[in-house]
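Subject: design request, 235 residues
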């Protein structure tokens, strides 16, 4: 079975922030792609590399897969403009919800660092290639994800082959957390998930947060249903 990776370039924090800002201001389609092209031009000599980077930025902040409503994307851009100090949270949620390979890599990082705040690159590579295949394309895509996390200052690289988590970002705002709950559901490509499962996900390692039922009322696309001792979240 052919695996679609999609995450085929590394990204910089300012590229993501500027793209999100344009989306929040209603810029889309060809106009958005043209603006991203101009943004990237000073940093690239290869047209192919620039095109791939532009397409990835456009994919994160503008392209809509069938299972994601436009309101989710709109709210992400609007919340980012209102809470710009949490911009990484919104980039994270968008990448989780739209790029399964990105989610797979960060999920494995979360597992590897659950008891220790560092991991060996070789351990991560072994886990990813077991799931996706031991190919040069998979290994390059994994490197692009790692470099992106480095550029976003979520990982440090104190020694060759060793990566370390940086201090987590505390997230208490209920509107932001409710949006992340929605992102979690879309990342699994389902229509419902238990709140316990969402809280237990390993993908949240860059953040210090806890989702509770009261957060859900801050997102009118979420419905909460009690089931035994858990809450099931529907979108």
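Subject: RE: design request

Done. Sequence follows.
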């Amino acid at each position: 079975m052919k695996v679609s990776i999609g995450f085929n370039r590394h990204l910089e924090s300012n590229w993501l922030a500027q793209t999100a800002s344009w989306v929040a201001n209603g810029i889309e389609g060809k106009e958005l792609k043209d603006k991203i092209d101009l943004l990237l031009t000073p940093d690239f000599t290869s047209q192919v590399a620039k095109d791939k980077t532009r397409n990835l930025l456009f994919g994160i902040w503008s392209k809509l897969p069938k299972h994601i409503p436009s309101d989710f994307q709109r709210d992400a851009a609007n919340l980012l403009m209102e809470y710009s100090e949490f911009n990484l949270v919104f980039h994270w949620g968008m990448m989780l919800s739209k790029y399964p390979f990105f989610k797979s890599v960060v999920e494995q990082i979360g597992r590897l660092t659950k008891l220790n705040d560092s991991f060996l690159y070789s351990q991560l590579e072994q886990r990813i290639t077991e799931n996706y295949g031991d190919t040069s394309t998979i290994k390059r895509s994994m490197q692009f994800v790692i470099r992106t996390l480095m550029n976003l200052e979520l990982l440090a690289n104190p020694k060759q082959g060793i990566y370390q988590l940086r201090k987590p970002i505390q997230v208490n705002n209920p509107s932001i957390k409710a949006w992340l709950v929605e992102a979690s559901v879309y990342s699994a490509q389902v229509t419902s998930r238990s709140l316990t499962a969402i809280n237990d996900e390993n993908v949240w390692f860059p953040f210090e947060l806890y989702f509770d039922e009261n957060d859900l009322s801050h997102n009118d696309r979420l419905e909460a249903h009690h089931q035994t001792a858990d809450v099931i979240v529907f979108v």
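The first helix runs from residue 13 to 24.
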